[in-house]
From TrEMBL:
It comes from Devosia psychrophila. GO terms for molecular function: DNA binding; DNA-binding transcription factor activity. Keywords: DNA-binding, Transcription, Transcription regulation. SMART domains: HTH_GNTR. InterPro entries: Tscrpt_reg_HTH_GntR, WH-like_DNA-bd_sf, WH_DNA-bd_sf. It comes from the Bacteria. Residues 8-76 form the HTH gntR-type domain. This is GntR family transcriptional regulator.
Length: 121
């Protein structure tokens, strides 16, 4: 689980993992997320790095800190997070991906059929 890549800061990668847990429903609304200490130990990272990942989720309003209890997923967090991640993808990732598709002269229909085939397997 601690297979980090160098393209992004570790706290961003941890934030993404926590985001995926919420979006997939591994941790439901109102439920506690794993503790900072637990994540830091599991991933062999500094607890401050994990705290920074949590703070990013607190900043967008999907996680709340309950003093003495830990971090909890807020009600409505999944829908809020989905909207946030979609907007972020369209603003940050999609322009780069679209430019690469164009530069490589790839056919969009071929890409979609390849994606659909991969999803069936």
């Amino acid at each position: 689980m601690d297979d980090f890549h160098t393209g992004q800061p570790i706290f961003v990668q941890i934030r993404q993992r926590l985001t995926e847990m919420i979006l997939r429903g591994s941790v439901g609304e109102g439920e506690a997320l794993p503790s900072v200490r637990q994540i830091a130990a599991d991933l062999s990272v500094n607890p401050l790095t994990v705290t920074k990942a949590f703070e990013a989720l607190v900043d967008i309003g999907v996680v709340e800190k309950r003093r003495g209890l830990g971090m909890f997923v807020k009600t409505g967090a999944r829908a809020e997070l989905l909207a946030h991640e979609r907007e972020k993808f369209l603003k940050e990732d999609w322009p780069r991906i679209a430019a690469q598709i164009k530069a490589l002269n790839l056919d969009v229909n071929m890409l979609l059929s390849t994606t659909a085939q991969g999803a069936e397997q």
